[in-house]
Amino acid sequence: MFTERTSVGLDVHARSVVAAAIDSVTGELVQTRLAPSYEHIRSWVTDLPGPVAVTYEAGPTGFGLYRALTAAGIRCEVVAPSKLQRPVGDRVKTDAKDALHLARLLRLDEITSVSVPSADQEAARDLVRAREDCRGDLMRARHRLSKLLLRHGIVYYGGAAWTGKHDLWLRAEALPQLSGAATRLAFDADYDQVLTVRARRDRLDATIEEMAAGSEFTPVVRRLGCLRGVSTLTGFALAVEIGDWHRFTGNTIGSFVGLVPTEYSSGASRVQGSITKTGNTHVRRLLVESAWHHRPRYHVGAVMRGRWDQAPAAARARGDEGNQRLHRRWVGFLERRKRPTVANVAIARELAGWCWSLAVLTD
Questions:
Q1: Which residues have C-beta within 8 Å of that of residue 272, sequence separation ≥ 6?
Q2: I need a surface site. Which of 15, 49, 139, 215 has the fewest CB within 10 A?
Q3: What is the percentage of the chain residues whose pLDDT exceeds 70?
Q4: What residues contact residue 44 under an 8 Å CB cut-off, 6+ apart?
């Protein structure tokens, strides 16, 4: 229930902030444009009749304003933009109207707040996302190089690509087959890009491994590692991206990461479509990739036992139960001749629930 006297809505941009404040006692509306300075915003808010509550939409400006206002003793809520209620017939959008709309929704207590990460969690999240961007850059750099060779009829048949053997083939066999100084220069540029991005990825991997071994996320990472397909890098990414696992249940976390089917039901009809793909894209991709590891026959190898040795006994037992269950689910889908891609999404949705059960497990 909204208990403060004044509700403030802020439409925050990089170079300007539009504010609207509603006094619930007098009904007075105050609107102004502020500089994007935390001190300027805090000073303006503290001059309003108190107590005051502030809200603004989550976006590229981050959570610095939230932390500045909270440190000053002002209640601040960061709203999920996708959950805002908007009039269907409203075709006029301005910064002033958006700020006023936020202030009214806050006063009515009709907002859905996002989970604000701590400063350490946000720093770890930035590192994980930098690694994710690096993975995409490396994939594109490799594609550019391989397609350059393909245009000249040069194809590698010696096994898996981007291994040490493939790297030797690129320098010793592929390069001499290229004719023309310009083409060789293009090859050198693309090959150098592959090496540079790969080295950057390896540095990020080493840093993440170090943080995963000695940080506040270490217990969660080690418990998540009891599941197949959840390595240290994947477990650390899930831990920092989800943050507070206790705000979900085993059923709701699949919806949060967009792995539940869309639905349109009315009366006696019920129509379900593809998955919603809402929420955190990075977490969804990690879960879908990890789900493929549960398709082969389940056996506990040396790598899995090494991860189990670092986890508590309860997590080992829970992880083993989850691995057996998810593999049985894969077998059932294959016996019913389900398309593997469809079956894998269903496995990923259930895998999210098993990850949640391990993350909230007490040692």
A1: 261, 262, 263
A2: 15
A3: 100
A4: 19, 32, 34
